[in-house]
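A protein record pairs a chain with a discrete description of its three-dimensional fold. The following entry can be read in just this way:
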Amino acid sequence: MNVSEMKTWLAKPFYRSLTWLMLLVPIFFTSYQFANQHAANQMDVTSFYFEWEKHIPFIAWTIIPYWLLDAFYGLSFLALRDKRDVDIHALRLLALQAISIVCFILFPLKFAFVRPETEGIFGWLFDTLVGFDLPYNQAPSLHVSITVVVTAALLNIPSRLIKILCVLNAVLIIISVLTTYQHHFIDIPTGLIVGGLVLFLIKKKEINVKVH
């Protein structure tokens, strides 16, 4: 593909979104696993939680909304009809990833509770998650900050009903980080701060990604 063909490809929002996703997904998994393994190799990684968190129930089925964020991550790009909006969305995701990974490396934290054994489809989903997600990378919750940015993109869909469903889905995903025993409470407000900060700092009028 020559430069002219590349420009034509990237001028279409769908293909631009696809290109960004092909870049973002490997960056996400590579950097996330690096930070996770880095914490696992440390001699003494601490945990931070409140005593009342011990009373938070483990709800196995909430692994479904927890996993659904992966799908909404990709679908959020389809809600954007302008290539400039696509660039903004992608840069926001890159920014929150960078901020979170730096925090994970500088201030590693470990989830303190033991998750109950789970069977059936929910158990399979948990086992799959454990395959690449060790109990580190806690605060700020990358799951929460991504939910904030992805939901902001999905709100571009004109349907009022879909917007309401997106907000309700975001709330459920954020709750699920606690009920799946993936995060402690402190990870949620810190994740919300990172997500909100990225939305505030990276704005449409300030960004113009050009393809030469």
Summary: The chain has one domain: 3-206. Residues 1-10 have pLDDT under 50 and may be disordered. The first helix runs from residue 3 to 11. The radius of gyration is 18 Å.
